[in-house]
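User: We ran a pulldown and think these components assemble together. Before we commit to crystallization trials, I'd like a predicted model of the whole complex to look at. Sequences follow.
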Amino acid sequence: MKNEMTLRSGAKIKQIGSAEANEKKYLTRHTLSKMHLMPSGEPVAYDVAPDGSIIYYFAPDRVVEAPPETWYFPRARRDTMTLESGSVIERMSVKNAAARGYYTEDRLFRMHYEVVEEPVAYTLKADKSVLYFYDKKTAKRLPLNCVRCGKDVRYKKKLCRACYEKEMAVRRIEGDKHRNEYYRMDRKKVLFFDLELTGFYDHDEILSITIVDATGELIMDTLVKPVKKKKWKETEKIHGITPDMVAEAPTLAELTPRIKEIFADAENIIAYGVSTDYSHIKYIYDTAAEREALHEKIRCCANEFVRYASEHRPDVVHASLTDAMSCFEIEWDGVAHTSMADTVACMKVWEVLFPNYYEN
Ligand SMILES: [Zn+2]
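Assistant: Here's a predicted model for the assembly, 360 residues in total across the polymer chains.
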């Protein structure tokens, strides 16, 4: 016999006859139960009963004692019944069965398991009809169902394909409405900015600031001399700004009046992945109210791209500026990853995302 089955763990076991099982000293549940034992591991082989159900064989070194309360009762009270396959199973209470991990077919189905093995125990209902218990360990895990309709197998986000598509259609309509709205913004009052930093923590300092408006005009592009940090070896590799380059540059304090002026005039200030930039630029303001006012004007291009991609381009899994550009087939203007090129790229991505953003 060459038949094989795969267990839930992924292990493969073979179908064998009772002669081979005897020879290998494999034990069925029935034999184990007579010895007050129960399996502690997965079956090592199986056979098929005449009624089509599975009878598992267990290796003698993978068994444990059954809970004593199930065999200390007087013999007379131990009811058994014989299955068609010849296996003898014991009557036990629902509670006792659950203690061993045995459940009814119905209960297992509700736990998303399908029964393949023959019953391992039983109980009698009030009307004396038989209710079988099956071992959860050997039951087959069923695919989980959609949380919305409960009918079909899950596809994405806990929903079946149909419910997922329906949900996506609704979200696409909402997203498109948000993006296609006419915002009537003055291109001169929409700014894009990018900072280079000595590092990514709060105590790190700004090394360069680039600001362009939505006409593409350069408003500010300057190196900044940090006042505390003397070197930044790690980030230097990324942006290429060395301590020598900023030695003669203005400090943030010196630039602050001009930046405040620029920001005061703006209606929107947009960056790609704005949280790090905001957490550093906000320190040009002293009061919480001023910082809050800046925050109100700030928009994140990366967040908007992530939303767009989740609604329209499920194939896009990364959302860096480069990913957004290749998604929209936007070319680099100047040297990629310099703050100037990044700022212009962000401006272009925003314009694709919001085609009716500006007046004219
Ligand atoms: Zn569904």
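The mean pLDDT is 90. That may be worth checking against your pulldown data before setting up trials.

User: Thanks, that helps.
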